[in-house]
Structure formats: structure tokens, C-alpha cells
Amino acid sequence: MPSMSLFLSQLFNGLATGLLLALISTGLTIIYGTLGVINFAHGALFVVGGYAGYTVYSLTDSFVLAVAGGSAVALACGLVMERGLMRKYYSRPPEDQILVTFGISIVLVEIVRGLYGGVSLSVTPPSWGMGIAHIGSLIYPLYRLETLGIAAATLLLLYFVLYRTSLGLIVRAGIEDAQMVNALGINVKRTFLLVFGIGAMAAGFAGVINSPIVALTPDMGFRYLVDSFVVVVIGGVGSFPGAVVGGIIAGEILSLTAMVNPQYSDVMLFVAMALVLIFRPQGLMGQEGRE
């Protein structure tokens, strides 16, 4: 039987992983819910943000600038993707969207591999994240604990933007009925461009803050992409609270299962997704009847 300290440590690890997945999935579910685009390039944007942050961190020795730089590069990639290519695929069948975004992800990953090589890169935590924290009898890495706060604060900020601003109102209205929003004289296409950029920026931001925890590799985005789609299915398509709840559930499943048998962590995650699809196909917090 695992000790209590190990169990608590895995609970914190699951919460940290869950909030990270929630942050990635939030961008994914916003794009999917608003634009109807299945963005298979989302994991590659996570990688781009992580590597861009690594470059800025190496040049400036400032992790704050690294976070800003990685997020900005991912944002720029998202805007270019939407304006240059994705806009032409909104009315195309889902399989066309899957193929084009999967192709974009391959291109982005290979550009990263060409620039940095295929060897994994480690990122040192910032000075304010060095050391350990004592939580009762539990000894826990300080940066992982701080990552919880960073991810939670970012999710709160995104929640404020989506539910307390006029932009968020337009986005949520566009999710439900884009034609009606257009009829009201609102430029939905410009709003959707911003939405795609925000989703890409969320992925890049997550890639930077995760880089001191897991070594950077060009192919790491595919794993996070799969887990993020599972989170979206569990939480419900287009639901911001669902992405958060689904991310936390997925993180705890992965972490607690790995404590018993790491080989079954992914299996249990997909079992949970299958159960949700059987008993609540729209997801835990999704709307019934939504495709």
C-alpha cells in the first residue's frame, strides 16, 4: 500500500497536471465550440510555445519574459493559421479540417526539430521556483506548487474574459448562433480570429510553464493533444467549466493510477471517457443536443 505522503504527493501532481490539461483544453474547446474546427495543431502550438519560451529564457534569463515570449509566438502562429488557411475550411467537412490541421502540426513540429534537433532539452526552474515546500508532513517541489497557482490564475482570467466582457459575450453567442450574431452587425470573423489566437496563446502559455517540469521534445505535443481531446469529451464541447472539471478529473486519474501501475494510467483515462460517453454523451457540463 502506498504511504500517505506518497498519496498526497500524487494528489498534488494530479491537480497540477489537471490544471495544465484544463489550460490547454480551454483553448481547444473554445476554438472547437466557437468555430467548429477540430484543431489537431493545438499540441504543436504547445510545443512551439515551450521552445520559444526556452529560447527567450536562454537569452534573457527571465522566466517572466520567457512566458510572455512563448505565448506571443504561439499567438502569432495561431493568427497566421486562422487568417492564412483555417478561414477557408470553416465550411468544409470535418475530415478536411482534421487533415489540414494535422498537416500544420507536422510542419510546425518538423520546423522545431530542424531548429533545435531531436534531443530533449531541460529548462531550469526560475530562481523563485527553486527548492521545496513543506505542507505538513509533505515535502513538495516549490515550482510545481507555484504552477498550480499560475494555471489557476490564468484560468480565472480566461473565465473573466469569457463571462464578464463584451468580447466573451460575443464569443459565447457565436458558439450558439453565428448567423444571428452576424445579423446584429457584429464582425464575427474578426472575433473568431481573436478567438483562434487566444486558444493558440493558451496552448503556448501552458507549454512554457510546463517546460521546467517535463523536458522539451518536438513530439511531446501529441500526447497532450490526445489527453486534451479526452478532457473536452469528458467536460463537454464548448464548455469552459467543463474543460476545467474534465482537466482536473483527467489529471487525478493519470496521477493516482500511475501510483499503482503506470502502464494503466492511459487505459483508465479512456475508460473514464467511455463511461461519460455512455451515460452522458454531451459531457459532464456540456449542453444536450450539441454536436
Description:
There is one protein chain. The chain is mainly α and about 290 residues long. A hairpin with a 2-residue loop joins strand 1 and strand 2. Strands 1-2 form a two-stranded antiparallel sheet. It starts with a helix and ends in a 12-residue tail after the last helix. The mean pLDDT is about 85. The protein has 11 helices and 2 strands, in the order H-H-H-H-E-E-H-H-H-H-H-H-H. Helix 1 crosses helix 9, helix 2 packs across helix 8 and helix 5 crosses helix 6.
Give the secondary structure arrangement, pairings included:
Layout: H1 4-35, H2 42-60, H3 63-84, H4 94-116, E1 132-135, E2 138-141, H5 142-164, H6 166-176, H7 178-183, H8 188-210, H9 220-235, H10 240-260, H11 265-279
**What is the typical, i.e. mean, pLDDT?**
86
Strand order of the largest sheet: 1-2
Distance between the termini: 43 Å
User: Care to count the β-strands?
Assistant: 2
Number of helices: 11
- Rounded to the nearest angstrom, the radius of gyration is 19 Å
- How would the global form be characterised? globular
Helicity, as a percent range: over 70%
Proportion in β-strands: under 5%
Q: What series of H and E elements makes up the topology? A: HHHHEEHHHHHHH
Helix/strand/pairing category:
mainly alpha
Biggest pleated sheet = 2 strands, antiparallel
Unreliable stretches (pLDDT < 50, length at least 5) are: none
